[in-house]
């Protein structure tokens, strides 16, 4: 297994002198596995929502993110409002049931659902007009566009201007053991201070530092969905 969170957890284990044993489980089981004691922590870009914080301990944020969207390069998608009000009637491409598609539907967009397709399919459909935009994590989409520019120059897309729904991600733990949270928080604080966490972020997110809060996050629109 590789990735930002894997490198982060390995570094935490190294600093705390702990041996890390990974278990690959589905997202739906990630929280119940903590409840049952099957795992000590769960990590998978889990947002630190108020509802979750009532039931679980979270580490300090190790990653900050925000919603974004991809549109046609020539502006013909017709989406530019900062409050997302012009999503109404537009065709949004994405996977069924994702938070971002729920946001799009709540804003009046028409969902165009994809199942297990590659990124170039999503992006090409925006470029050709089959869909108007793709709502998703901003930083992930920045990487997708860089990848498309390098590999599919005929796909003409860009990032939309507005951002929305800023989030903080943390490591999920049981409330039964606060000592684990204290140790993990201490390691994360040290990794932030010495630049290790930033370096890991830049390694996996095309030079982007996701370890600092999104600028003006308190002024961005928040669309509440289940």
UniProtKB/TrEMBL annotation:
InterPro entries associated with the record: Solute-binding_3/MltF_N (IPR001638)
Please list the residue ranges annotated as the Solute-binding protein family 3/N-terminal domain.
2-208
Q: Which domain of life is it from?
A: Bacteria
Q: Does the keyword Cell membrane apply?
A: no
Q: Does Signal count among this protein's keywords?
A: yes
Name the UniProt key words of this record, in alphabetical order.
Signal
User: Sorted alphabetically, which SUPFAM superfamilies does this protein's record hold?
Assistant: Periplasmic binding protein-like II
SMART domains given for it? PBPb
The protein in question is named Extracellular solute-binding protein, family 3
């Amino acid at each position: 297994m590789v990735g930002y969170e894997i490198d982060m957890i390995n570094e935490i284990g190294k600093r705390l002198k702990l041996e890390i044993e990974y278990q690959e489980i589905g997202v739906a089981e990630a929280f119940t596995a903590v409840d049952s004691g099957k795992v000590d922590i769960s990590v998978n870009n889990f947002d630190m929502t108020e509802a979750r914080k009532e039931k679980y301990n979270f580490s300090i944020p190790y990653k900050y993110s925000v919603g974004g969207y991809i549109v046609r390069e020539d502006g013909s998608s017709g989406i530019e409002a900062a409050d997302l009000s012009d999503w109404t009637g537009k065709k949004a491409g994405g996977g069924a049931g994702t938070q971002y598609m729920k946001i799009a539907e709540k804003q009046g967009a028409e969902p165009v659902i994809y199942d297990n397709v590659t990124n170039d399919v999503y992006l090409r459909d925006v470029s050709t007009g089959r869909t108007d935009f793709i709502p998703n994590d901003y930083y992930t989409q920045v990487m997708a566009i860089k990848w498309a520019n390098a590999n599919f120059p005929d796909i003409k897309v860009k990032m939309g201007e507005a951002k929305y729904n800023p989030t903080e991600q943390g490591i999920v733990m049981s409330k039964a053991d606060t000592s684990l949270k204290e140790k993990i928080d201490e390691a994360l604080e040290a990794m932030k201070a010495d630049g290790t966490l930033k370096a890991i972020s830049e390694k996996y997110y095309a030079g982007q530092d996701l370890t600092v809060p999104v600028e003006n996050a308190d002024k961005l629109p928040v669309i509440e969905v289940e």
